[in-house]
Amino acid sequence: MISSIAQRRDGFDQWIHQINQICGAFNAQPLGSDFVGQIQEHQDGALKASFVEVCQARLYRTPLEVAAGEGGKYFAVFQLDGTAGMAQADNKVLLSAGDITLIDASRPSDFTYSENSRQLSLILPAQLVEQTLRFNQVRCGHRIAANSPIAMLSRRLILDATRQKCLTRQESEATLEAIVSLLRPAISHSEECADVHERAFRRTLSFIDQHIRSEELCPEWLAREVGISTRGLYRMFARNGLVVARYIKNRRLDLCAESLRQSRSEQKLSVLGYSWGFSDSSYFSTAFKSRFGISPGEYRKQHA
């Protein structure tokens, strides 16, 4: 009896250890004596996913695990078989086979598996999600119904992608971009907002994109051009959880990265940075490495 309990405990400890290695910092607890759990990692280029099979367990992240884990990502959770309960913030849903939900990895979350459940968890880089949805807030913790065209198309795409022998880096990135684009109507607050502040914010983001290559683009110049005070501009961005100067810098860096992925020329990196508003090549290189983890030159080689 003691031996079987010890074996189950060893199996549980091994399962949560693998979860932490593959998905990041999570905590867990068994919900009964019939716990079963296993995880299989799938990594191909930019695609980072895992197949999780589990029964009678709770998998969760408190602020402690969030602080210990890597930020800058979301989990798109595809319920393949069985059911699972999910909670994030004030949202609580029951996922059935075919349903999808989006989880913000920078916030606590809680999954409950009372019966046999099989999920595919796909990591979506925050910069990709937020760039695609940049005019809207990201909507997490909601159920995307299995019978919706969005769920059926995106589920088919990710399952087909995981069956491929070997995708190129560009093919895997294109797959991620396609999945985020497919899910966009369900994971963004896209409804027209009558609030005057929200409309002003969207106009300001559009104005930034129009002048993103200009060296003049800075908070003070932007405030004058859109007709508000600099202090009012800071407050507008703060209401949306953003810092205006950081948003401009990250937007430029994202567009630089896109140029590096798509360009086949060996344009000087200093010229590329200058063309997107970075007048100091050393600062451009440092900022790029801080955002993407590697230098612009290494990024270009990786995507060549």
TrEMBL record:
Keyword terms, alphabetized: DNA-binding, Transcription, Transcription regulation
Range of residues in the leader sequence: none
Annotated HTH araC/xylS-type domain residues: 202-302
A Pfam entry, by short name: HTH_18
Superkingdom: Bacteria
Gene3D superfamilies named in the record: Homeodomain-like
Ranges in coiled-coil conformation: none
Record's function text: Regulatory protein of the TOL plasmid xyl operons. XylS activates the xylXYZLTEGFJQKIH operon required for the degradation of toluene, m-xylene and p-xylene.
NCBIfam families assigned to the protein according to its UniProt record, in alphabetical order: PRK09685.1
Protein name per UniProt: Transcriptional regulator FeaR
